[in-house]
Each structure stands twice: as C-alpha cells, then as structure tokens.
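Justification of resources, computational component.

The compute hours requested in this renewal are based largely on the per-chain cost of generating structure records like the one below. Each record pairs the submitted sequence with a full structure-token output. That output is archived, and it is also reused by downstream analysis tasks.
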Amino acid sequence: MGIKSGDLKNILSHFPSGVTIVTTNVLGNVHGTTISAFSAVSLDPQLILICVDQDSEINKFIIESGFFGINFLKSGQELLSDRLATKALDPDHNINDGLTLLGGNSFTLGKTGSPVFDEKLAYLECSVHSTVITGDHTIYIGQVENGDVSSSNDEPLIYFKRKYRAINLDS
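The structure output for this chain reads:
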C-alpha cells in the first residue's frame, strides 16, 4: 500500500516549514545539522520534538550528551542551512578556544552546553526526554530547558517546494 517515494516527497514539498539547525556538544566538540521537522508537543510539561534521519551522525552525539539546541534560522541564512544539511559531519568542530565557528557562524554555548548561534530568529535548549525510532528517522522529544527570541525584526527562513523562501511580514 502507499504511494511512490518520489510522489510522497513531491507532496511533502508543498508543506512550507521553518528551517532550523539542531546543535549539540560532546566534550568540547560541537555538532550541528539542518532539519525542518520540528514541532511543539506540549506546554505543560514544556516539550517539543525534532526528527533526525537515522543515518545522520548527530544522533550518536545527541544521545551521548543528552542535550540539544534548536536554532531557528532567519532569511539570509541559506548558506548556513546548506552547509549543515549533510548526514556526515566534519570531525573538526573543537571549540577549546570558545571562538570557533560552526558552519561559518559564530556561537556561544547555552546553559546546556549546546551551541546557540549569534545570528538566529530564536533558539531553544532541550534535554532529551525520550526517543522514538521509526521508519528512517529518530524522533527526539525534548524537555525545554532554556530559550529566547532575537531582538531583531528579521523574517524566518522557510523551505517550500524544494527552495528557500522568505515571508514579507510588512505586507
């Protein structure tokens, strides 16, 4: 039963989604990957979910650290999204000096130790509440530990019909 994989991808491309980068930190090595599968789950308790391809190397780091950050990207951050939209991560993300760039963007370590980009719309930091492995993805339910919204009036980066888009909030 079901439909062809290519047909499903085409149908799903018609659902606009925000673009986020999930980050984590294990023993001073930071890691990040681009995802679009993010959703709020509950306000009480404060839970969100992310879906990560099972082949993505970040899975082992999220499990090892027990924490992850979610950076909501703004319009103009397409190159950052593309840079981290890969299953294989660079092994050279050591941040011993605290100044190293992740995907070419500067960051600070949040309260959980997860990287939080200096340039973003908003961010959340979560502890891993639970995981569900299903199909070709792992679903992480995250307990929100920290977060904030940027003080800028930037517009979100949106992915729709296999292209980045921006929303004009002034119209």
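Confidence is low (pLDDT under 50) at residues 91-100. The CA atoms of residues 63 and 128 lie 8 Å apart.
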